[in-house]
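Per reviewer request, we include the raw input and output of the structure prediction for the construct analysed in the revised manuscript.
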Amino acid sequence: MLVGLVCAHAGPGRRADGPVVGTHQHIARIAAELAGRGHDVRVYERRDDPDAPAFLDQDGYRLELVPVGPPSPTPTARLVPHVAEFGQWLTDRWAGDWRPDVAHGHYWVGGLAAAHAARGTDVPVVQTFHSLGIEQLRHLGREYAGPGERIPLERALTRAVDMAVAQCNDEVDELTRMGLQRASVALVPTGVDTEQFHPDGEAAPRDQRPRILTVGGLTPSSGHDDLVRALRLVGDAELVIAGGPPAERLDGHAEARRLRELAERAGVAEQVHLVGDVPHDQMATWYRSADVVACTPHYASAGRVSLEAMACGVPVVGYARGGIADAVVDEVTGKLVPPGEVRALGMALRRLLADHAGRFAYGHAAVDRVRCSYTWERTAGALERLYERVVGRRKPVEA
């Protein structure tokens, strides 16, 4: 099968041998897995560096860099006027000797470009949003910073695609509320690299106190402040916050200062440690160093952090929302608490840190759950079957 994966954003500092993170990491891994299954896969990203090559062959698939939009890093809101140009470039490209059997749009801007190209080529379109503006707005409120046109354009996109892929059950419900029929929404969770994230290996240095680790960007929506407040109920434990800018720039970061001031007022400043940005290829050592990983974001569609921690054999205490609610089985692989209930969060952490046998059992169950249900091989297999179904619907019935 010929598969085109469309992400209108430029890759972050992309090199032929360089790392990719976030949505780009997800797309790159899917492309490699599908290529390994024998499919001819091409990934389309915007080229923001005029000196970058037109394409790169890597991990069995081809990455094509599309020369549209400004030749420099550009915020999402400023890419919208270039969607039609991106779609036309794809239309012209697919008019040659390589045309995909199915196009898979990623994020809303990539989906709009894929849908625009599909109008001129009749290629069926599958869409993964990765996050939904209407859902972010509901959970983040004033912290939501998406462009104003995003929500209506996402709603229009649901009417233009053949199938939408949701990464958690909350997203399934949201897409149906947006007007999609349930039969047009497929639940395909993200995968975890179990060769990178596993219980055996080095762990980051630590002292004798129990360690709670939380991972995420340093923004108010990450929910780190709830953990700082909950720490008063936990007792003598350290809270390590990984994410944000590099460690040497934390002193000048507004959210880092806010969290430290909050810790001072709560009387837990000595227990809270911000370590700044940690390269993704080093995250497994940090997960293994923790007794518990806490996941308290205001919005989480994929629940990637909870899955990576579970793959490393660490129980998770998290808010029961989004991908976290799907990944964590309450009282089996960790503990789920109602979102925003700081007291319940603190008590869950306290009890689990005091229960060595319980953490051991949860950790083993967590590893089994990830290896059975959240591998990249399983994710790619589900997408492969979905593509076949979508392509089969478009084929004319033979007499």
